[in-house]
Design goal:
Elements (H helix, E strand, L loop, with lengths): L10 H16 L11 H21 L10 H8 L3 H10 L3 E3 L26 H14 L11 E3 L4 H12 L25 H20 L10 H9 L2 H20 L1
Antiparallel strand pairs: 1-2
Helix pairs in contact: 1-2, 2-4, 2-6
């Protein structure tokens, strides 16, 4: 949650990006808790749009014809309904009746100087996007069996990313994340995750063996050293002296 005084500074998108980065590390899809509030939907829609557009623009031309929504989900960790929601909102996906024509987007065109979706002032652009978002409800999404992703409309994606990058918001560096997911499952773990978990455990054990032993909670270091340095014979002798003193006192 981002407090109102910190909103419109990119913090919400940063937190969402971090949550999806953990999902990528876990190699599973992630989705926010539903239903989303109006402000939450706007924030998540911004992140979904950025993630999907960045991935689509990175796809080589020779792989565009075979790209599917599942491929986008695997790379972004966003579920298929939300990927379709973004593509449909920006008119980047078309349903195909004939299965032979599916997944043939053609060649990606370079960005154009202007696009009808972004013409007009800021209010007009926001109204166009809001109208498109209302036409596609997350609760009523049905992904067609055959479709094509419109890579020829790459100017829409380029322009959206350029507009966001001009804001200068903070962004995470995925390569700086050093974290191994803790998986609780009855089934077999994927080989790569099992190896990562084994390496992390080995590193932690080595680190624990090299670290000095800390004293128990509430016990000063000097008392611990004194207790460790004293021998069992000394404790026995002290115990015998105490017993003799008690016996003398009782005799008196």
């Amino acid at each position: 949650m981002t407090l109102p005084v910190r909103q419109r500074r990119g913090w919400g998108n940063l937190l969402i990006d971090f949550s999806y980065l953990l999902s990528k590390k876990e190699k599973r899809l992630g989705t926010p808790e539903k239903p989303l509030s109006d402000l939450g939907l706007v924030t998540y829609r911004t992140y979904w749009t950025l993630a999907v557009f960045r991935y689509l623009l990175s796809v080589p031309a020779n792989e565009q014809s075979s790209l599917t929504i599942d491929d986008v989900c695997t790379f972004t960790s966003i579920i298929s309904e939300e990927v379709y929601y973004i593509l449909k909102t920006y008119d980047l996906i078309e349903a195909i009746r004939d299965a032979t024509d599916a997944h043939t987007p053609g060649t990606m065109s370079p960005p154009k100087p202007s696009n009808p979706l972004w013409q007009g002032n800021q209010y007009t652009r926001r109204k166009q996007l809001d109208d498109a978002a209302r036409a596609v409800s997350l609760a009523e999404i049905t992904i067609p069996a055959h479709y094509r992703i419109a890579f020829e409309k790459a100017d829409v994606m380029y322009e959206y990313l350029e507009k966001y990058n001009r804001k200068g918001y903070l962004e995470l560096k995925p390569d700086k994340l050093h974290w191994t997911p803790f998986l609780v499952t009855r089934g077999a773990q994927p080989p790569d995750l099992a190896e990562e978990a084994a390496e992390a455990l080995h590193t932690e054990l080595q680190r624990a063996s090299m670290s000095p032993v800390r004293p128990p909670f509430g016990l000063p270091d000097e008392d611990v050293k004194r207790a460790l340095q004293s021998s069992p014979g000394e404790h026995d002798a002290e115990g015998e002296e105490d017993t003799e003193e008690l016996e003398d006192e009782e005799a008196d």
